[in-house]
Design brief:
It is a single chain. The two termini are 19 Å apart. The chain is of the alpha+beta class and 106 residues long. It contains two helices and four strands. The chain has a single domain, classed as 2-Layer Sandwich (Alpha-Beta Plaits), CATH 3.30.70.100. Helix 1 runs antiparallel to helix 2.
Length: 106
């Protein structure tokens, strides 16, 4: 099981809009059965931490290539991602393995 985190550095003043679009994009994947539960959080500068950061996170059983043959990317998601790219300075993705009981050291 993996924890996946897509991080966006929003342009100044755009973090709430970026968070909304990230949520909508994740909803399209969820609706297509390609992603389970997810969450989005952001910091427009109202809390401690780095300003204008937006995080979309979810878990998945396996890491899968976006280029895999059976991957049918929802067209609405592609439209949303294009808009997201105009509102962000950069983005990156982080993958971490979740510790589950079967992976624990005895």
């Amino acid at each position: 099981m993996f924890h996946i985190k897509r991080v966006f550095k929003a342009k100044s003043g755009q973090s709430r809009k970026v968070a909304t679009l990230a949520y909508q994009a994740a909803e399209t994947y969820n609706g297509a059965g390609q992603r389970g539960e997810f969450s989005v959080y952001f910091n427009p500068g109202t809390t401690p931490g780095e300003k204008d950061i937006v995080v979309l996170q979810w878990t998945d059983e396996a890491l899968k290539s976006v280029f895999r043959g059976e991957n049918d990317i929802p067209s609405r998601s592609l439209e949303i991602w294009k808009e997201l790219m105009t509102l962000t300075e950069e983005n990156w993705i982080e993958f971490n393995e979740l510790l589950t009981p079967d992976k624990m050291v005895s």
